[in-house]
Amino acid sequence: MNEQSTDVHPQLEYIYSELADDPELRDLIQLFVDEMPYRAALYEELFRSGDFDELRRAIHQLKGAAGSYGFSVITEAAATLEQSIRHEAPYEQIRHELHGLIRLCTAARVAPID
What we know:
It is a single chain. The chain is mostly helical. The protein has a single domain (23-109), classed as Up-down Bundle (Four Helix Bundle (Hemerythrin (Met), subunit A)). 66% of the residues lie in helices and 4% in strands. Helix 2 packs antiparallel against helix 5 and helix 4 packs antiparallel against helix 5.
């Protein structure tokens, strides 16, 4: 992986699945990665609409799925955001954590191209 932080860093390029070497999982991981733009759009929409309960549920689901597909950095960022929403953290904190998580999601790749 290239980046472990949930901060929005301009140098963040890609993060790679820790399970990419498993040929049985590779296609499933690719499907997960392919749906990331849709997930990111959903999270943005839920945030903009103020539906924090549904956002928390969606982030909780991402937390589990990301771990299953070898993206522990996404799991960690999702867990942090989920707790922030659950504990009604300040709006700006949630916004910052969400944008960091979305950045990680859109940077997800199965593995580097050889």
